[in-house]
Amino acid sequence: MGWIAFGSAERTAYSEAIKLNEGESIILSSFKKDRVIKITKDKKGFAIEEDGFENSKFSIPNEDLKKRIKKLLAFEFPRSHKIMLSIRK
Fold first, then answer.
1. 39: nearest Cα among 54, 50, 30
2. Where residue 1 falls among pLDDT bands split at 50, 70, 90?
């Protein structure tokens, strides 16, 4: 998809994640690509892989996705103005 402004990143990532089919993912990364958040649609909801300041993997239900995206963006990209959004099928 390309570069998106940080202010609209939460809304854009959430709307794109809801449209995903099972097994597809969204990747949010910094300019240097040293911090990455990967959101993958699975049967029970979403699997999230965080690789940056903190490295973790966890699953969440659909209803918690928007709140979790907001927290992850604030934590992983505190000084970013633009974020790269990619969709992998």
1. 50
2. confident
